[in-house]
Write a structure and sequence with these properties.
The protein is α+β, with helices and mostly antiparallel strands. It folds into 2 domains: about 110 residues, Sandwich (Immunoglobulin-like); about 160 residues, C8orf32 fold. It contains 6 helices and 14 strands. Strands 1, 2, 3, 4, 5, 13 and 14 form a 7-stranded antiparallel beta sheet that branches. Strands 11-10-9-8-12 form a 5-stranded antiparallel beta sheet, covered by helices on one side. Strands 6-7 form a two-stranded parallel sheet. Strand 10 and strand 11 form a beta hairpin. The radius of gyration is 19 Å and the shape is globular. The two termini are about 15 Å apart.
Length: about 290
């Protein structure tokens, strides 16, 4: 499936600002699950874009605007071909014993320990123990946890902020997709299952909207991935109780939101500012004719 995405972020400041330094993780990744076919970023005021790859393999673009400005917009246009039409296209059954053996061989340390948004607290550990089913294979256990969180957490925009930790969101049993992903990652890591945070987009077809709660659908999205030996990274979406398929477009991965923030920066000037984000995600076949 080919998907076209337009993502626009507008910042408006209380007064003029200078020395604005920004970095973005808005370029879709290219991997066995998807191919980024087209990408361009436009900024206003205009800026010279530079890029590098971070420790998690994400392509980061950064730019500076040193002269005075009272507003700034960042707009990206991209076309991505998603390739994972069948997320269940593997037959391996991975036991928890198999997983522990693989962990000793793989470089997965960062995805097993706590991180800024996901402290491995007793609360997360107790939740993990309540949900743990050692007699099942790892993937089945992951799906059970995914379903449990979908049923027992309330999707409530405005109940949390971008600074809310997994423990805080778990205590109030509500949040948005970022919080659902953080809680699930904390539970999985408590069970010694390597898990990482994913930022990206979701294409909402009519069939998908019928299958899930429309209120929970946003084009800009977050979910998590787990590592299965012999299979690789596979995604699950606790917000919608779905397994990630070709409707999902991945932007960046990391230990948590801090590593995969789509756009962040610093500047000199008034503290007060507003931010507006708009995202349009369309299937290209639907645009023909």
């Amino acid at each position: 499936m080919k998907i076209r995405i337009v993502h626009r972020t507008l910042f408006e400041y209380e007064g003029p600002v200078v020395n604005s330094f920004n970095e973005s993780r808005l370029r879709p990744s290219t991997d066995p699950m998807q191919q980024c076919l087209e990408y361009r970023m436009l900024t206003e005021p205009g800026a010279v874009l530079r890029s590098y790859h971070d420790l998690f393999g994400n392509q980061v673009e950064f730019f500076e605007i040193n002269h005075s400005h009272a507003r700034m917009s960042v707009e990206t246009h991209c076309v991505v071909e998603t390739l994972l039409s069948n997320p269940f296209d593997f037959s391996q059954i991975v036991s928890f014993e198999d997983l522990q053996s693989a962990i000793n061989r793989e470089t997965l340390h960062d995805y097993l320990i706590e991180s800024p948004y996901i402290p491995l607290t007793p609360e997360l550990w107790r939740c993990a123990m309540d949900l743990h089913q050692p007699q099942t294979d790892v993937w089945k256990s992951v799906l059970n946890i995914n379903e449990h969180l979908h049923r027992n957490l309330i999707y409530h925009p405005g109940s949390t902020t971008v600074q809310t930790s997994a423990t805080e969101a778990l205590a109030q049993k509500s949040g948005v997709c970022q919080d659902f992903a953080h809680i699930m990652i904390g539970i999985l890591r408590s069970l010694k299952i390597p898990a990482r945070y994913v930022s990206g987009y979701i294409y909402e077809s009519d069939a998908m909207l019928e299958a899930v709660d429309r209120e929970k659908q946003t084009a800009s999205h977050a979910w998590c991935e787990v590592y299965l030996p012999g299979v690789g990274w596979r995604g699950v979406d606790p917000t919608n109780n779905l397994v990630v398929n070709d409707h999902y477009v991945k932007l960046a991965v990391g230990r948590d939101y801090a590593d995969a923030t789509p756009l962040k920066g610093t500047y000199r000037g008034p503290k007060t500012r507003s931010m507006q984000v708009s995202v349009k995600v369309q299937r290209m076949e639907a645009l023909v004719g």
